[in-house]
Specification:
With 205 residues, this protein is an alpha/beta fold. Helices cover 28% and strands 21% of the residues. Helix 1 runs parallel beside helix 6.
Length: 205
Amino acid sequence: MRVKICGITRLEDALICAKLGVDAVGFIFYKKSKRYISPESASEIISKLPAFIQKVGVFVDEDPKIINQTAEKTGITIAQLHGDEQPETISQINIPVIKAFRVSLFFNYDILYRYKKTPILLDGYDSEEKGGTGKSFEWKKIPAELRSEIILAGGVNETNVEKIAKEINPAAIDISSSVEISPGIKDTNKLIKLMNKINQLRYLC
C-alpha cells in the first residue's frame, strides 16, 4: 500500500516525507484551496526532492494546456484531476494522470469504468471543498473488484490505516488534513507515527 501526502507548501515538510519513505507528495494548484501553492514555489521545492519520489500536481477543471505548462515549469510527474474532467481531457495531458472522485451518499460507481487505464482516487464528498476535508465515506461500498486498484482518501489516518489495509487493501492512500497542524503545515510527529504504522503493516505482509 503506497502513501501520498498531499497539500505540501513547505520544503521542510516535503523533505521529511521523503526521509520517512513516503511514495508521493502532492502540490495543490487550485487557487481556491486552503493549501494552494504557486507553481513557482512548488518548483523550488521539487528541485530539492529526491528523484525517486513522485511529485503530484492537483488541478480542478483546469485547461490541459495549463496542466502541461505547469508540469514543464515545476517538474511534477503526475497530474491529479479533482474536478469534473472527462476521459477525453486525460488524453490531452502529457504526464500520467490520476482521476479523483468525491463520493457522496448516492455516488454511482459505474462512472469509474469510463476511465479505463487511469488510476482512480476516491475521496469523501463535501459541498464546499474539493478535497482535503478529512471526511470519509462508506468504504465498504467500493466494488470488490476495484478495491485493490484505487487510491483511498478522506478520513485516512494513523488510527484506521490498519483497518483500511485489512478490509479494503487499496493500491495507495492519500492523506492531508490528518497529518497537519493547520492547512498546508504538516505535523512531523503525526507523519512519523503514520509511517511507522504503515511500515509495520508492510513488514507483517
